[in-house]
Amino acid sequence: MALGPLMVDLLSTELSETEKDILKHPLVGGVILFSRNFESVEQITRLCDDIHQLRQPHLLISVDHEGGRVQRFRQGFSRLPPVAAIGQEYHQHPKLTLERAEQTGWLMAAELRAVGVDFSFAPVLDLDYGVSQVIGDRAFHRDPLAVTDIARAYIQGMKRAWMSAVGKHFPGHGAVEIDSHLGLPVDSRHLEDMLQADMLPFSRLCQTELAGIMPAHIVYENNDKLPACFSPFWLQEMLRGKLQFQGAILSD
Q: Does 126 qualify as catalytic in the annotation?
């Protein structure tokens, strides 16, 4: 059975019979795990194994595991720093920064792969403008070239642990204040400005480094009236067309 387009979540730390039936549905292609699904390394390993055994090819298991504020599994896992801590000395010590980025990407991916998780929704490619409630220290840097450079090293570390990368949040979440989990932010910038800034990491990494991209839940009002996650302009014309991205588009 081929994998379907839906990723679903689970209620607890083990599969119920109802959830097993849901996961066997042909429209389902994967599972996203949260903190409520985690008790220990041993338990999460069993859960991932149970999910993988349900179907062939097996369902893809994912998690948000960036480090800092966004790390769903903690006990028994390394405490990963917020990625801003990696990028803060990029201009003073670029070589050391890139080494740390690659090591952190490898560590994150290796620990998740060891328990059966297929991929993390990482890295964040947004720019830190110092205004976003939800991005902040989840971003590597303010400079788009620095973000591109550091993210590429981070992804190389992920690849060494056999994990694909998912960049987020296209075309850029860092310039709006409102948390898009709580409201609908509106960004008034024009496309040309974004192409030279927020979209630069996506455009430079999407051809060779990113297996997936997650769009932002933001309205860019001077480009389209729909949120990017529902926008043919952003997803088809820009991401598939102008940027020639052929990987998966994953929206939460």
A: no
In 186-197, which positions are buried (b, 16+ CB within 10 angstroms) versus exposed (e)?
A: ebebebeebeeb
Specify the pLDDT at position 91: 96
Residues 144, 202 contacting (CB under 8 angstroms) = no
**Amino acid (one-letter) located at 47:** L
- Active-site residue, selected from the candidate residues 50, 64, 224, 252: 252
Q: Which of 146, 167, 47, 156 is nearest to 108 (CA)?
A: 156
pLDDT in tens, 187-200: 999 999 999 999 99
Residue 181 known to be catalytic: yes
Task: Give the C-alpha separation, 44 to 152, whole Å.
Answer: 29
Q: What pTM, to 2 d.p., does this model score?
A: 0.96
> What size, in residues, is the chain?
252
Mean pLDDT rounded to a whole number for the chain:
97
Task: Look at the alpha carbons of 63, 217, 146, 249 in this order and tell me if their dihedral is positive or negative.
Answer: positive
| 181, 187, 193, 198: the active-site residue | 181
Q: What does the alpha-carbon distance between residue 50 and residue 53 come to, in Å, rounded to a whole number?
A: 5
CB atoms within 10 A of CB 41: 15
pLDDT of 15 above 80: yes
